[in-house]
Amino acid sequence: MPELRQDFFTKEWVIIATERAKRPEELVTHRQVQPPPAFVETCPFCPGNENKTPPEVLRVPAKGDQWKVRVIPNKFAALSSEVQPARSLQHLRRRIDGFGFHEVIVDSPDHSRCMAQLSDEQVASVLNAYKQRYSSLSLDHRITHITIFKNHGVDAGASLQHPHSQLIATPVIPSQVRHRLFEALRHYDDVGECMFCHMIEREVEDETRVVLKSERFVAMEVFASPTPFATHIFPLRHMATFGDISEMEIIDLARILRTLLAKIYVGLENPDLNFTVRSAPAEYTQARHFHWYVSVIPRLTRVAGFELGSGMFINTVLPEEAADFLRRVSIEKVNAAAAGR
Amino acid sequence: MPELRQDFFTKEWVIIATERAKRPEELVTHRQVQPPPAFVETCPFCPGNENKTPPEVLRVPAKGDQWKVRVIPNKFAALSSEVQPARSLQHLRRRIDGFGFHEVIVDSPDHSRCMAQLSDEQVASVLNAYKQRYSSLSLDHRITHITIFKNHGVDAGASLQHPHSQLIATPVIPSQVRHRLFEALRHYDDVGECMFCHMIEREVEDETRVVLKSERFVAMEVFASPTPFATHIFPLRHMATFGDISEMEIIDLARILRTLLAKIYVGLENPDLNFTVRSAPAEYTQARHFHWYVSVIPRLTRVAGFELGSGMFINTVLPEEAADFLRRVSIEKVNAAAAGR
């Protein structure tokens, strides 16, 4: 029997379509892709080509003049830090001059290894760079929201192959984020608790949707997952904004994020994928009603007219089956390869 | 200079990224696709194969035992009309048994001709079928929202080639729709007018984003368009729900919708595409604050991590340029072919 599930947080309904149900294996695309080389002479993100990018805003140094992670302004930035966010309103047409920051985080010097194949320590360096840039840009009083995200693969929007992440800082809080903050606030006012803390506690007890758990984080399939294998990683400690993550938590998150990505890489055969850090805006740092998380979204299906026309999604994979599938995936080979270099 | 634009209705911000700007022609994919045959023996929607589908719920008859349009239950329905919408809530996990209707509207007996290539009269028959099913299903007190949509092409979610539309009727109002109704209501309460009527009047005066205008409808590029060439067709008369469309309006809408689709078909070389009827739920039929429309969305770009992580979109085509481009496209050849059969 099909089922409608409501997300506890966005309040959006999802159709879990059991009549069209697919086993997780059926979503694998089985693309034969040649693994890319470790170094590409024309790649602007490969070592030695640092002059092909704008001057870096952050470098995590390695031995000598080498680096582990670089952060640079996006050469084809969607927003410009050179203009001021002047507003105008004419009839119902509201505009702001395109002020903002658009940065690229180069995940490692190695062109060939996606994040699933990096060492936990390298991923921690990347997360550290996220945090430094998040904290630094949050200080700009013109910035109200920062989105950190990764596009892996062409279908996920990646235009350059060399593994990298991105950050876009905007002078507006997205309407979608406002709605979510409002729903979370309403729950807090009604019940006197962070709805995420409540949900996390119950899901950890219940176990059926939990994929991985560590001392400080839990990765779980989403109860009302709009698409197959949408997985959220929550800090167990209440924190509204990503900027509050501690050093120990970064180390723990690096391990759980990397392990999850490796399980998806092996189990679903390296699908195109996005992940994004879903944080409250920095001004909410003390908020009791919001809880940041990392949302990992493998791009296994296409959005069609129903989704565009209603905002509701049809998901053909039971989240409980997705969790079971991911729990069983062994990532020994990926780990051995990551340790071997 | 890039620009942030806020949609007057959803309140969502869009980045119009002029640094990454593309001319409309650059979005054409230039796929060489063999035109499909007019009849396919194995196609369940082709004439003669009526027994391969569930029994039809509506038929627009043609000569003899032929038909112009058929409406049938979806064989792989996302929801089932056989169950009752029983609700349950456990902790924060809210579910409803998967009650609903999922129907297919076969646009014409001809396997080869997409809606852009049909006659205006045939499209009017399809819209009439939409209206009949919309009105009929609205009478079911368990149904609260109906989404009518079309998927054209694989990237737009179409799994069968024979041109068809779909309808999904749900026992819930999507959260996204609720938010939009609320924003429109707030405008009505503040200003005492339908925000759509206001916007339509100004856009028609302004002309820069208008693609087509008829006696009863206007097709325009969206001021804060999240993706290139997102085009809305509004009735000029205030109407909250699609079910209130008159016979004359159906004839007029058929012409303007078909003309718009033909312009996209010719100008952008038959891109994958969705369209959807955005109506208030039937219970809002008398509402003064909402205004239904048809949203046409060519699928020319990929959604990436920023969009998934913030709800904001980056659009690389200026809506004003898209409107100018579509206005200039000649559809004489398509019209001649449509009239010739």
The residue-averaged pLDDT of chain A reads 95
**Shape descriptor of chain A:** globular
Order of helices and strands of chain A: EEEEEEEHEEHHEEEHEEHEHH
User: What's the architecture of chain A, going by CATH?
Assistant: 2-Layer Sandwich
Q: What fold name stands as the CATH topology of chain A? A: HIT family, subunit A
Low-confidence stretches of chain A: none
Compute the gyration radius of chain A: what is it? 20 Å
- Strand order across the biggest sheet of chain A? 3-4-7-9-8-13-14-12-11-10
As a percent range, the share of helical residues of chain A equals 25-40%
Strand content of chain A: 15-25%
The chain pair forming the largest interface, with residue counts per chain, is:
A-B, 78 and 78 residues
Assembly category: homodimer
- Structural domain tally of chain A: 1
Q: For the record, give the distance between the C-alpha atoms at the N and C termini of chain A, rounded to a whole number.
A: 49 Å
Mind telling me the CATH class of chain A?
Answer: Alpha Beta
Describe the sheet with the most strands of chain A: 10 strands, antiparallel
How many individual helices of chain A? Answer: 7
CATH-wise, what's the superfamily of chain A?
A: HIT-like
Instruction: Tell me the structural class of chain A.
Output: alpha+beta
β-strand number of chain A: 15
